[in-house]
Amino acid sequence: MKLILMICAIFTCLSLGSSQTFAVSPGDVLEKSLTQTEEGKTPHEQEKKPLITDQAKPDAAKAEEPKSVATGNNEGEEEGEGETVKIADPLRPWNNAMYHFNDKFYFWILKPVARGYSEAVPEDMRLAVSNFFSNLTMPIRFISNLLQLKIKNAGNELLRFVYNTTAGVGGLADAAKLDFGIRQHDEDLGQTLGSYGIGHGFYLVWPFLGPSSLRDTIGWVGDYFLNPVSYVTPWESGVGVKAYDEVNETTFHIGDYEDLKKSAIDPYVSLRDAYVQYRKKKVEETDTPAEGKSQSSIQPVGQPKSAQKSITKLDPDQQPPEKPVPVKQSGPLPDPVQQPTEQIESVKQPGTFFKHAETFVKLPELSQKQVGQKPIEKRELLKSTIPGNHYASNPVHVQIGVFKERSNAEDFKEKYKKKGYDTFTLECPTKEPGAIYRVLIGNFRNKKEAARLAYEIRSNEKIDAIIYHE
Amino acid sequence: MKKQGIALTLIVLLIVPLSVYAGAPLDSVKGNINKVLDVLRDPALKGESGKKTKRQKIRSISDKMFDYSELSRRTLGQDWKKLNPAQQNEFTDLYKSLLEDAYADKIINYTDEKVAFSKENQLSEKTFEVQTTILTKKADIPIYYRVIQKEGEWKVYDVVIEGVSLINNYRNQFREILMNKSPEVLIDTLKKKVGKA
Lengths: 470, 197
Prior knowledge:
The complex is a heterodimer of chains A (about 475) and B (about 200).
Chain A: H1 2-16, H2 20-34, H3 43-48, H4 56-60, H5 64-71, H6 75-81, H7 92-120, H8 123-136, H9 138-147, H10 151-166, H11 175-180, H12 189-195, E1 203-206, E2 210-213, H13 214-226, H14 235-250, H15 256-263, H16 267-284, H17 293-298, H18 303-309, H19 357-361, H20 364-370, H21 375-382, E3 396-403, H22 406-418, E4 423-429, E5 435-444, H23 447-461, E6 466-469
Antiparallel strand pairs in A: 1-2, 3-5, 3-6, 4-5
Chain B: H1 2-15, H2 24-41, H3 47-65, H4 68-76, H5 85-108, E1 114-122, E2 127-135, E3 140-150, E4 153-161, E5 164-165, H6 166-180, H7 183-194
Antiparallel strand pairs in B: 1-2, 2-3, 3-4, 4-5
Helix pairs in contact in B: 2-3, 3-5, 4-5, 4-6, 5-7
């Protein structure tokens, strides 16, 4: 208990001094006494690190790269070397024991429980539960963003909380993401400490909780106090609630750990390394993976193309003609007017309460394959075998044509497929012998989405498009 | 008109010589991934019976997509020199089957995931990073492919999933073995792992 209090005290010191200079000096102590992770680097140097992304590092080795490629000699290998992330592991016997404990715990208890639970509870409900809990932990993200001076992200977290709690019915739906594309900014206090330049210290595996490090454990303690669930009384209920959250989360990750074990030569080392690499990325990432100013600053060369290919968020209500049509391939031609990647977060126009707009404005060239939720099932629908899961109850499509001849329908389908629509044909038997062939698009979650696309097609392609509902 | 076009192209090429590459890495990765997706979504290959064919097809795509020797060399890093040429070849083969075994099954079970191709970053003169995202209902998983230009083609030499680089992850594992054991032991371990002992 005393130990925990002490750790808390250290943590409070750290978090109170939100100015970086202050935070660095305790970090310095930690660094010198405990870490071997970032050899020879002062925290000041590390402090700059968050600005340099993963991608920037090989860039530094640029000079050597061409030579090694050309000659195939050893220099290229050294280049990869610089990226290796290491962590001190002085408590390996303990960690190893805990790794095996968690391994057994996962296979003997957690996985079976999660399996049974996921069979009993439909996916959508589990997603809602997951959303609910992540909405609850907003304070962790809010404070962490604030402490990292990511003011905009902190504001977004607050907005998300308010909106998801109200419009998202107590946080069950991530309405802020669906309606405005405001994403969650995953930050915790461990990352915050990392962003101050504090290294991991050493690797530490906790029973039940899994891989961590000294730094991230201290972060966890802080997170604990920022998590509302921690204040549930009696404390047993709080633990129960957290365990339930854990089981619910596990249902989405069954198989991940198995894959790691299957592919690894030494699962312990593989997990340790994956943890360190993953946390490093989390600490360094400036924003959502899709954007990141530091990334674009590294390499302007690929920019025109990449801007074109980037995720473009459209406002469905006011659509300037130069913007790409949803579900339409933007084509290989550069489109200078198209929004750059940064746009992803910038469309937050209140009033455009078009649910799930994201699904089909997300990525132009992708959308042809992803209009609906279930690309595979579209093929299955083709054969009129509606799959028995997920959206099977009432698939909604957009119909753009009906033909008596199969070949005509196929031609029509191909024509619009080339334009980027996710078309397919559906053979519908008629009363008299024979059949008609419908050319349909996508598999939509609801009529609203389908109606949206039908409207787009009518106005952009000047052809008739209606909702087709089985 | 045509002449103007050519002139314009030349000017553009002169100004930004590297822009010749722009897009090529992304298109290459995208082409290969779309091929894989086509195989996965092929209605003719549904069910258990189609799995074998799927696996074969995906394997032949991945053979073209990846540069396994580059991947192996970068994985071992400085330890690569500890292996003699024969061992290096053997290592490459075994490592390749390990990766194929490990990831083929996972990929084959993909159904409704979508892949978004967001952009490419240049890492060095000959290497790029193509950023993609797998969009699942639960979350968006960033997967970056690092590619290198070899004989005019873009070959993948590393895959970075949620910040975890494949070759770095294996490097640490192999290094632990090579630290106090011989390369033969490493190769034997790999053999056991892929069931070729």
